[in-house]
Write a structure and sequence with these properties.
Blueprint: H1 6-21, E1 26-30, H2 54-61, E2 65-69, E3 75-80, H3 83-92, E4 98-100, E5 106-111, E6 119-123, E7 126-135, E8 140-142, E9 147-148, E10 160-161, E11 163-166, E12 171-172, H4 175-181, H5 218-225, E13 229-233, E14 239-243, E15 256-259, E16 264-267, E17 274-276, H6 278-285, H7 303-315, H8 321-327, H9 335-345
Parallel strand pairs: 5-12
Antiparallel strand pairs: 1-2, 2-8, 3-5, 3-7, 4-5, 4-11, 6-7, 9-10, 13-14, 14-15, 15-16, 16-17
Length: 347
């Protein structure tokens, strides 16, 4: 694929920024030729930019890509990965600012006050297949005018670019209108992966995770959506994601694996050889424990630290308070019970 040059990139990026800033959008910097945002806290308001910010405009004019961050100005972004979603959007939602992505899917932008959370759209015939996302606060899509180089295109390896196909201002819609438009694709119950016991003691695959999907947790989810973790078929567990560790990075670019079949992650950094399930990942992502301390029955994940992880899981909406109480953490009867809980659930 022949990619557009710098002049095209700058012209179309600045045009999109001018339109989206009228809807109150905020932006983040994305590395040139890539989909990955600059820095780990790009979604925080103090690390985002308005459409008039000279730092952002200088970055774009210098060839850097950029991202549009959902939630600001009540901006909600529909990521359409399937033609059925695009057809429903055209039939049931108003005409709006729309972008063709680097793989010819669509991003459609809406203003939807009090949207309150993202929505994952799943194929009702195969609930393990994602066909779209409604991105809200804390989520990012690559901005129109951005160019992805082939060496950073982990999906197809061809590279591509994001182009405006409708430059209307983002249309106003109610949250219920968006949910109703995609009916059967919303609230599809995802099939549970069969858990099998792994041979390595570092990864416990019999964990009680209350159906938390490791690919849906925090920075792992973001890395998958941004293409920083690439899916590889094969292996004894059918397939896995591989890339740089989302927290401490990688010199080789491939020190981190996520294995959906085991609902677990693994770090291969020299001296770490660590891993675990969703709760261990929350602990590492939040800086509660070091990555090297993540392994089955780790003494680092007990007492108040374990309690804090469950509190975070509740705050993120990953589990309910009632489920956390089942684990015996929010209101533990004693420290002995807490330690026994850790051993029982082996998270």
């Amino acid at each position: 694929m022949k990619l557009p040059g710098r002049k095209w990139h700058v012209k179309h990026s600045l045009k999109a920024i001018r339109v989206l800033r009228q809807a109150g959008a905020r932006f983040c910097r994305v590395y040139e030729g890539k989909k990955r945002p600059v820095g780990n806290a790009w979604q925080e308001k103090e690390n985002t930019f308005t459409g008039e910010d000279e730092k952002l405009l200088k970055w774009v004019k210098g060839g850097g890509n950029y991202g549009v961050v959902g939630g600001f100005g009540d901006l909600t972004i529909l990521d359409e990965d399937d033609e059925r979603i695009t057809e429903l959007r055209r039939a049931k939602l108003p005409e709006t600012f729309t972008v063709s992505t680097c793989h010819n899917d669509r991003h459609s932008y809406f203003v939807s006050p009090n949207f309150d959370g993202s929505i994952r759209l799943l194929d009702p015939e195969d609930p393990n297949t994602v066909v779209g996302d409604v991105q809200d606060e804390g989520k990012m899509v690559v901005g129109p005018g951005s160019v992805i180089y082939p060496e950073h295109d982990q999906k197809e390896g061809t590279g591509g670019y994001y182009e405006i196909v409708n430059d209307k201002l983002p249309a106003f819609v109610k949250r219920g209108t968006i949910k109703n438009a995609f009916g059967k694709f919303v609230n599809v119950r995802k099939k549970k992966s069969r858990k099998t016991k792994g041979e390595n003691r570092k990864i416990e695959t019999k964990t009680e995770n209350f159906d938390i999907d490791i690919t849906e947790v925090g920075m792992i989810k973001e890395a998958i959506e941004n293409g920083d973790l690439a899916y590889k078929k094969g292996g004894k567990h059918g397939g896995y994601y591989v890339g740089a560790h989302p927290v401490h990075g990688s010199e080789t670019g491939g020190n981190f694996h996520v294995i959906p079949e085991l609902n677990a992650w693994r770090c291969w950094r020299n001296g770490h050889n660590s891993g675990g399930g969703p709760y261990y990942w929350i602990a590492v992502e939040e800086g509660i424990i070091d990555c090297s301390q993540a392994y089955q029955d780790s003494p680092a994940l007990q007492g108040e630290k374990f309690r804090k992880i469950l509190d975070i899981a509740v705050e993120r909406g990953l589990i309910t308070e009632e489920q956390a109480r089942v684990v015996g953490v929010i209101s533990p009867e004693s420290s002995e019970k807490l330690e026994e809980t850790v051993k029982t659930f082996k998270i």
